[in-house]
Target: Chitin-binding type-4 domain-containing protein
Amino acid sequence: MRGHRQGGGAQPDGLQDDDRNEQGRFEWTNDLRDDLLDCYESSSPARRGYMGRMHELWSGMHPEYDTFTAQGLRDYVSYLRRRGYVRGPQQPAVPEEQEPQIHIAEEAPPVAPEERLRDRTALHKTKRPKPQDLARANEELLNALTEEADIWRINCAVYEAVCSLSPRVHNRDSCVDRAQRRVKKMDAKILSARQQASRIQCVVEYKLAARPYTPKDMEIRHLFLTTILLSALDWVRGHGRLIEPPSRASAWRYGFDTPHNYNDHELYCGGFTRQWVKNEGKCGVCGDPWDSKKPRAHEYGGVYGQGLIVRKYGLGGIINIRVELTANHFGYFEFRICPDFKTTNQDCLDQNILKLVKPQEGVNHKNYRYFPKEGNKIYEMKYRLPKKTCKHCVLQWKYIAGNNWGNCPNGTGAVGCGPQEEFRACSDITISGKATDEPMVPPTVPVAPDEDYDDYNELEPPSSVVPPADEIPKPEGTYNPVSALIISVVSFLVAFLILFLLYFHFYQVGKRIREWLKSKTENKGEQKVSNMQHYPPMVPSRSKKRPAPQPNPNVRYGGANIA
Model:
């Protein structure tokens, strides 16, 4: 047993003076062990302060050993329980070399952290933990330790660690929460660094291929890049949209009476950072950010989720799907169908993944993914519908990009591995027993969905009148990259012309104008000086001043003579 002795008191049987002084050990008997276990069980270990009661019971039974501390007695009880000690005379004595050592008071570490812990407790107004509380909280841990573990040093280390920590982290749950938050922040930094690395890769390749920047042409290149980015900002922001069948965001471009969404090519779950850092990879089924207010804008009940059916298809038929990419991010397309248009979720969509009629050549993948090639254009694919009917289905387009750097399953890093940017869109369609190849007539008002719709149901093909081809509304003009390039070049030329005129004005014409004004001012000054030299000022005339008249002393005031 590991405990403290204050010195003095009766010596246990079998403990010699030399052994006590050199090793601090004595021999335990089965009677002493049984009495100690009785004291331990009688002290109600589950209650607070049980160690003090156990020490009182032990001191009453064996006053010659009352110098042992409660902590040491409790540690020896834990040691016996780990060994599987059974009471009774048949229990063999514990081998002497495996018994824990009894530490006397002089070997105990000083309790210097008590004062520091007391000051911190007064500052934070929290209850400081006591050694008894720590011992009770670590009871299960101590029982699980091996026999060779130094329990005394473990208790000292735990107490020192608690004294050095702030009281608010004493709770184990708070420590775990703080660790999880740190791990989450670190994962966010790693994802952001991977995304930045994929963007820097193109710059590095250009840097290695082209000549390095010089002080002479650095300003010109920066000006050129800034002008192109500012003039073609809308072009760069574009990504892609589902145009056949028209998605809920793009239906207005094809004559349907739906709200206009001019950013129908930017349904990318709020962006890479918002999706993977803030929302942990979650995204709305129709491309809306996961944390946006429900109902989301492009889901049923939202601003653009009007429930307007744009196409009718036949049972198990082959349909043409077209996707327009305004900025190719590589990756692949996937298409899914869910019969529940009111509460569409990803689990329902994953149960009905459409398959390609003819898989692509030269790519290693399953037959339901389509990999767009390089270039910004309209991609047309042929997919086969499931052999089920539904009165109102939701067709989902899912575009997993492949332009970010990440870790591959084989442990290496490459572009296209790991979390990627995602684009999604939803269309409202009908699958009936008979196919209608012609597109639907865009109604003047949105069609309200039926309230009694439940799931896939066999139904009669709806009757509709198909107008002539010349009366079918044509889609509005879409984005043309050639025109955007022309606009960018013209904008750059105009900006360059303005900068050239400013430079010419301030450094060429302006300099000459200042020199001319300066020379004109100097000429006026010289002319004035020359005039002063040729025409000296006239000397004023000098005239003698007349003296003032003096009064006559013989004349009195008022005209009387003075006698």
About this structure: The CA atoms of residues 308 and 446 lie 6 Å apart. The mean pLDDT is 69. Residues 1-170 form one domain.
